[in-house]
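Morning. Coffee machine broken again, so started the prediction first thing and wrote up yesterday's gels while waiting. Chain of 643 residues, entered below exactly as on the submission form.
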Amino acid sequence: MVRHPLEPLTAEEISAARAVLAGAGKITGTTRFPLVLLDEPERHTVTAHRPGDPVVRRVRVTLLDRATGQAAEALVDLGSRTLVAWRELDAAEDGQPPILFEEYALCDAIVKADTGWRKAMADRGIDDAAIERAIATPLAAGHFGRDEETGRRMLRSLTFLRCDASDNPFAHPVAGLVADIDLTERRVLRLVDTGPVPVPAECGTYDPAHTGPPRTDLRPLRITQPEGPSFTLDGHHLTWQNWDLRLDFNAREGLVLHQLGFHDGGRLRPVLHRASLAEMAVPYAEPDPARNWVCYLDAGEYLLGRNANSLRLGCDCLGEIRYLDAVLSDDEGHPETLHNAVCLHEEDTGLLWKHTNIFDETGETSVVSRRSRRLVISYITTLGNYDYGFYWYLYQDGTLAFEAKSTGIVQTSASEPGQSTPHATEVAPGLQAPYHQHLFCARLDAAVDGPGNTVEEVDAVRIPLGEDNPNGNAFTARSTPITSGADGGRFADPAVGRTWRVVNPARFNRMGGPVAYTLVPRPGPPLLADPASPVARRVEYATRHLWVTRHRPERRYPDGDHPNQHPGGAGVGAWARADEPLENTELTLWHTFGPTHLPRLEDWPVMPVDSTGFTLRPTGFFDRNPALDLPAENAGTGHCHTA
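Came back before lunch.
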């Protein structure tokens, strides 16, 4: 029984949606299901839901006929077992559905069967045995306005060699060769060959058998909670240290948090209606014709949730762990269960607050402190060469944070050994790691103490030396409301400590100010591709650090519903150009962040974690420190004491 409108889809519901489509004559032997998602109810419907109320469940299905390349969107009502809506997609205007898992192997087979590609490999001195061990990678094609590609379902493929089945293929890129593939016609549409370059020979293995004996001076670290964790998980409803929220997991975004609120003064006060990582773009910097098209949209083209890992205790998560499984759809529309998809655990994070009162004359202890604990909700996904860990953190003082950890293997290209390039780092002889960016986009549906919110841009501003500032030491904070959609695209500015404060103008704290939460960015450069480039048209969200838009149910993703091979212009940029009023209304914040990666030698052969993220901090949301009631303890083991 589904008890809440935002419960993740069950296996039975996925099967039922497929049965409805089959009954409506919409499925043939070549029909595939690139994406099956819950059609989330409108936020007021969700807010009004009470235990025991009827639950309406609808499923959004994206279908693809592999024989013809025709795609469609369907909306299925599970209660009435009816097909509510059906729309065929125009690939040239709407874009393509996400890449299927089975298209990975299809891409490899198409490339290896192409006579032109085999000749190019032979011209490079690569024999048939090496070809059989080669990997022809299935890479998103993007959109470059080429007439011969319009409307086609495509991939582009770079080739990498392996010494054996366990070798790291990214150590051996075949440079100057890319195959453009038509997946429907199952042929290489175009082969780009800019000429042979020596294939790097040095292996890039990183397993213990090849890296030498492990260290022997690392002693065990054991984390125990004899009484169990402090959180309560009832189905997908999670409570912890005054926090109250619902957990979800879907194929496109992976982990989603719903209805985040904080218990304060006897009532549950909402903070966010919905929070997710809605997209991530990885554009590369090489201008070479065989590489200048490379930009991946890992959520919209490949699906973050579908590529998630089954987590392992002691490796991916450490401590007193609780796991959640995820039920997703496979390529043929049948349910499949990913075990241990989401990890929940608590971590000690050091001091939360402390003070030594040097003026205390009572004879009592003058040192008071409380340790901080956070709840970690996480999952890990693997997208080709990169692995990403995504972590939501809840803190006892009402702070909420997100962290993305990038690891795995850098993508590589080849050059003559010792040859320098302004667009890459040589990490091994002849092996180049191109410069690139990881541009994550968080979707934050604001609900700070209610649905009517306004975003203010807050800067720390220097006051000029003068009569009112004779010593020149004064500065102040300048708050500028973002009132219209046309002004909704904003840049971070570390020079003025820029933050964005989400206020509820109808709710006030005890000092008379509006209650608020503040988005604190950790900014890097926005999209560095030229504003007139095809990449910038398709990844417009990444040209700003923040977009503020009116919340509407159909505005789900910052780059639109079907970014695969989309010509661009969909998503946040289009919504901003609508120039809607943004004051005291339902808002979505689209926050872009992430590193510009100039690879180091230390990133090879496997990359240490590179972290990025942001924080949401209560700002006048509470009347005082909400963590004053924490017990005096030392990480749960007893009172503080001297050694």
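The first strand starts at residue 31 and ends at 38. Going to sketch it on the whiteboard this afternoon.
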